[in-house]
Amino acid sequence: MASSPLFILLGTLGLDETARRLALFALEAFMLAAAADLLRPVVRSMNQTQYFADLSAAWIFGQILGRFDWFRNTFFPASNIELIHVVAVTGRQFHSFKDGLELDPSLIWKGKKQPVVIAMAAMASAALLGVVAADFLRPTVYPKGNKVEFRILMTFLMTNTESAVLARLVTEHKLGASDFGQMVIASALFNEFVCLLGMALVFSANLVENKMLDLALWPIRAFAFVALIFFVVVPVFRWMRRRSGMHTTDMQVCVVLVMVIIVSAAGQLLGFDGMLGSIAFGVLFPREFHMAVKLADNYYYLVRIVLLPIVLYQNMTNVYVPPLDRNAYMVAPVIGLIAVVGKLAGAVAAARFYRMPLQEGLLMGYLLNVRGNADIILLYLSRANGFHMLDTRAAGIMVYAIFVISVPVAPISAAVLKYVRKQSPGFKHAGIEWEEAEAELRMLTCVHSLQDLPSSINIMEACRDLPLSVYMMNLIEYNERTASPIMYIRRSNDVVPLGDTQEIANTIDAYVHNGGIQVRLTTTISYYRDMHEDVCRTAAELCASIVILPFHKFLGVDGKMHTSKAGYRMVNQGVLKHVSCSVGILVDRGLGGTRLDTAASALNRVAVLFFGGPDDREAVAFGSRFAKLSTIAFSLIRFFPEEDDQYNTTISLEEESSPCDELEKHLDDRIVNEFRNRYTGIERVTYQERFVSMGEDTLANLLAVEVAYTLLIVGRGEKGSSPIVDGLRNLEECPELGPVEDLLASSENSNHCSVLIIRQYRSSNQTSKP
Questions:
Q1: Is residue 169 within 8 Å of 49, Cβ to Cβ?
Q2: pTM of structure
Q3: 3-class DSSP state for residue 608?
Q4: CB pairs under 8 A, 24+ apart, for 21-25?
Q5: Of 89-103, 545-559, 694-708, which gets the smallest average pLDDT?
Q6: Residue burial 555-564, b: 16+ Cβ < 10 Å; e: rest
Q7: Is 62 exposed, middle or buried (0-12, 13-18, 19+ CB in 10 A)?
Q8: What distances in angstroms separate CA 68 from CA 33, 38, 81, 82, 255, one per listed residue?
């Protein structure tokens, strides 16, 4: 240790040897975590998961920089490797326990048979190819190895998969809640269960000497271990949960960590590796009230951010080898190809048996090649507890082979899915303007948090007297922490037990139970940059008439609008650009209050501001449905330029109106006249006309109007749709809202009423429907 410059430098600060070791270890852990964090944007651009960033960081420090003596002696000296090893062993157990928490066995035995059959077929074909290829590969990979042991190793290497990593990958591909995505995850779960059970049998410590008595006693020891977890450890945690009122406390988290170490030690005493014991503990952990998911969420930063990079680095140092020879580099792709072909053959055969499309069978077989913790366990066990299945060179070849198998899975599957989705016909909604007044309104409302719920309920309630289908989508930002609960989804309308999601589901259930409109709730987990794709795809699948999105700002206690998250605005802009139906952006200024009993009754004064153009006509068509509710006082306010009530004096006399302009004016008059005829004689429904000049007069009129109403509905307004609107465009702060809406949404001009901005869907070459 004396040769480490950092260790000497820490000594000058007056630290004793133990403190210096811990300080150096903290620096090592920080370097690994920081490197993984820096690699994530690069890895994300390659359509890879975060796990690949952690693995790449460990590879850089363990296999590339670790080859330089000055780097290794300075930052990872030999005297500190022992501490890294101790932390890595503990971290490996905690990470295995977290993986076990994410392995929900009920997804297998409560689901359909297809995933199990497909997984068995894929494993069988991959294992058969692995056994056949083992005899040809062994002279190149590990000539001194035992033939039988190498066949066993190749069997597990060919058949392994990682359900946790696959769940995250499937989530990123927007398949997590689909039937196909759930089938892939269920197949991966069964695959991983079988492989881990097989490794537990083969690598039990007392089987090294091949004693028949130990083999006969293995089922008894396995049953004793499961009984210890199920009848002793799990009831203790259930008792703690009952005492704490079903809330996960810090004390419970610490107790479970201690339980993991105890269970792992008990497993080793019974002849099982500690990692396998930790996984078994996680699998058998109680699932009721989403306890497993909540506990995995509490362990996320400790296990995923701090301990996993150390575990991977320690694994990389174990397989450290000098540069491999040419034959070694050639055999790794061969091993990868055999594994991929084996899984593909079995999955496609089983899929065709169930009459599934060929592309689904191919994609499922390819996705089952995702690798992760199971391969780490395999490489670790192959050189531990007296086994010598691999030397350092052979272990290096296997690491390269795992990279070759796993790395192409994400980008290739993403490319295939992108191509398939491009070939599918798209849904396009003509607009509410062109529907009958009594036609069913299919509404998709989006919420980011519990704060968005009251205003969304209020909008739904305003349409309750009409044929209505309401779908609500909870938008959750994707990361490693939010992706794992996707494994617990059974159907697309199930709830991911994460953050505000459970509270949102409970609130919707209470609202429906109290006589509210039936709401179908779904969840999407995605990066903000492409979350709009989920919204657009769901809107197309539901044939939605309109999508309602929350504004990216909220009203603070100081009466000003504050930005929630920049990502919310990115989602809104993406939906406005790509969705194939009408869109509404809701600027919420306390619409619906903060409680469920006020959310369904706060909307009582609504006005539609009409300047002209397709977006304003869509606003009238949507807003006029509110007028049917007897508790709402509704007004349609039409604005004209002050100089001429025929609004054409702003056009030069030398210019002639185009046929398109004349058509727009005709359509504007038509929808206003239809509204007036429909609601003639109803006292609570009024129609007003206002003549305004440009600039300050328009702004003053708008502010005077908004004081009198709870909600204003306004069309977004394309350039040229109205001379009044065009005169305000130089004041825009948020162009996606439009000039009038931007002024109304600004806290400097208004803080009285909420605003709903409507934009009608139009294709790039479409103006108005004749």
A1: yes
A2: 0.70
A3: strand
A4: 21/79, 21/80, 21/83, 22/83, 24/77, 24/80, 25/80, 25/83, 25/84, 25/87
A5: 694-708
A6: beeeeebeeb
A7: buried
A8: 21, 22, 16, 20, 42
